[in-house]
Design a protein that fits this description.
By secondary structure, the protein is an all-alpha fold. The chain is 67% helix and 2% strand.
């Protein structure tokens, strides 16, 4: 297992940013804002589920995960903190985060359940975010015109999501997680993720007064279904999760490593 590096990003999110910070594009801004709104609660859940699961492993089995767990928790905690700052700016712009409340309610329903369910949910969500990250790293024009510090924020986050994509998956297997449930949770998580993402994006656009603008929907159609669109490029790597011999490392991570090497002046390692 590769030891994960915890990095502190050298950007300032205490300064406000423009409402349509992503190149003036209302849809692309609303979409990324929606994703950010899910991160603090979601990433705390990932930390809790993986950390709790590793503690349940026999002492002879948890040793391989110790260093990786430390890096995973450190990276996710850093993401949670920096997106809380980003979301604070959104709140000051009048946006309302409905996604976070739904995440919190679903987490409550898992109380008392077999911990493997929480880890399977984490592994599925981490796969989805890794697929999204790979698309962003290979199509950085999605952030064309974005303010530099925000462009760095999203590409750094994408690189680290790709980097720790297998942690929860490996813990789930170490716990003896069932393959049928692994696939079931991916289907369930995908449905909730897509619906919640769309709901929050539409809510953000409604707040902007951009929901009924033609150029908003033109941008959305291009982003999702264009030649370089998310759906076209993400479907196969998402679908691969259902293959019997699947492992997250089969989908590479070279773009993430390259970005981290090329942008080493944008962060400092803290472990």
């Amino acid at each position: 297992m590769t030891e994960l590096v915890v990095r502190r990003l050298l950007i300032d999110l205490n300064e406000p940013f423009e409402r349509h910070w992503n190149g003036g594009d209302a849809f692309r801004t609303a979409y990324f804002n929606a994703l950010s709104m899910s991160f603090p609660a979601g990433e705390q859940f990932f930390i809790d589920s993986v950390r709790g699961a590793v503690r349940r492993l026999p002492k002879t089995a948890d040793a391989p995960f110790e260093a990786q767990l430390k890096g995973f928790v450190g990276q996710e905690a850093t993401h949670r903190r920096i997106h809380a700052l980003f979301n604070g700016q959104l709140m000051r712009q009048g946006y309302v985060n409905g996604w976070e409340a739904r995440i919190v309610q679903r987490i409550k329903r898992l109380a008392g359940a077999d911990p493997r369910h929480a880890v399977a949910i984490t592994a599925a969500t981490e796969h989805i975010t890794a697929v999204l990250a790979e698309h962003l790293l290979s199509h950085p024009q999605t952030l064309a015109g974005a303010e530099q510090r925000l462009r760095i924020l999203w590409l750094w986050h994408a690189a680290e999501e790709s980097e720790h994509r297998s942690t929860a998956f490996d813990v789930y297997r170490a716990l003896g997680g069932d393959e049928t449930w692994r696939r079931r949770w991916m289907r369930t998580v995908t449905v909730f993720f897509v619906i919640d993402m769309l709901r929050q994006t539409l809510r953000n656009l409604r707040h902007d007064g951009a929901l009924l603008c033609f150029r908003t929907w033109r941008s959305a159609a291009s982003f999702f279904f264009g030649r370089e669109g998310l759906v076209r490029h993400a479907y196969k790597p998402w679908r691969a999760y259902f293959s019997p011999g699947f492992h997250p490392t089969q989908q590479g991570g070279e773009l993430a490593s390259q970005w981290l090497r090329d942008n080493s002046t944008q962060y400092v390692a803290v472990n």
